[in-house]
Amino acid sequence: MALRFYNTLTQQVETFSTLHDNVVRMYTCGPTVYNYVHIGNLRTFTFQDVLRRWLRHRGYTLDHVMNITDVEDKIIRNAAAQHKSLAEYTEVYTQGFFEDTAQLRLERPERVVKATEHIDDMAATIQKLTDQGCTYVSDGSVYYRISSFPTYGKLSHNDFSGIRAGARVDVDEYDKADARDFVLWKAQKDGEPAWDTPLGPGRPGWHIECSVMAMKYLGETLDIHTGGVDLTFPHHENEIAQAEPLTGKPFVRYWLHAEHLSVDGQKMSKSLGNFYTLRDLVAKGYAPETVRYLLESVPYRKKLNFTMDGLKAAATSIERLRNYKLRVETDKFASGLNEKITERTRQATAAFDEALDDDLNTAGALGAVFEYLRDTNSAMDAGEFLAGNIPAALEFLDRFDSVFDVLRPTAKTGGLSDADVDALVAERNAAKKSRDFKRSDQIRSDLASKGILIEDTKEGVRWKRQ
Ligand code: AMP
Ligand code: ZN
Questions:
Q1: What is the pTM of this model?
Q2: CB of 366 closer than 6 A to ligand 1?
Q3: Angle at 31 between CA 66 and CA 197, to 5 degrees
Q4: pLDDT digit string (tens) for 56-76?
């Protein structure tokens, strides 16, 4: 079956196709850089990474844009409280975001763009919306008149026809009950940063930046737009309302939203204070790829309840996968090719692909991998897995890892490289040969203290990182 996604706009699972050639024009709402991201945010960004990787696997090229929201109510408040300029304040968390996402092995979108570098574009777009009759001015601020856009509500599937015309909101975030005309341009207030534009001194509201940057870099109609479910309303609804009156075309063809990561049944969020950052978990001794695995293991449209036990289970799963790979690479198998195993590998690959084609069913894909591990481990125990079966098994693992990306251990900073370990293992072998057991034991315990385990097997020495 073809690649398909659940589209929030149509509330249907739809077969995916692109508008132009095989290039996917995709936009992601990036972080609001007023703090380090928590692993709830990272769940959404990890989903996007899996999406990117699977689209590429299916032959597409990506043109993916992500914004950095570096001007917004909370940022302005926090920067002022710390007596810092916006740029000084946001730079720390922008860099922090790049570090965290790199640690989680998230690919960088082709373009990462900052709101503050697009203020003139935003002012020009607001002017065009005014020319279209979509706005009005009150106390120097410019508001979007939602009654001017008859299909307002089509993404969040809300009927807003009865709302009071002229009721306004100035804050960047608000809920459905508060659906009102929203602010596009905020007139300067005392002590707040402002830009001089033909709209008068002020700053943009949060919503306008994404419509503007998405269309600037990706054109009038995007293939995919992603974000967490909390962005569906009002943010994405407003993005559509800001874009479509200007082009007369659909703004986005497929809207994909990731469900929340929760803790004790509540959304993980900065405001509730119930969050962990990646930094917190790494400080507790968890490898970044363990967090990555946990975030990937639940399909993106299902809620993921975060627990430390879940994280430990993720570490165990990675361990099983690595041990299996090591076994395939280093065990001695009888020569020949077992056609049954060849067929089993083909079947596992098809099941893996089908699961990911099915709206990125990552749990299904992992199920296919672990069933394959179980069956082929038994075949190895029974002497039925033959040397000729090795390449296809490794290829299947590569396919898995090109999406999940957890097999390579993160090198501990200040730790030993693979080449360093190989050299020490060779030195230990030489010491044993010359019966210098003191030295060989010393090397073994030094390596163990650095988290590297040596195993003496029939086939020789193996080592692995813990
Ligand atoms: P923010 O920095 O608040 O704009 O959020 C960045 C991204 O993280 C957005 O796509 C949000 O929808 C998403 N997000 C926020 N909280 C969670 C959560 N608990 N679980 C999953 N995604 C989240
Ligand atoms: Zn956005």
A1: 0.88
A2: no
A3: 75
A4: 999 999 999 999 999 999 999
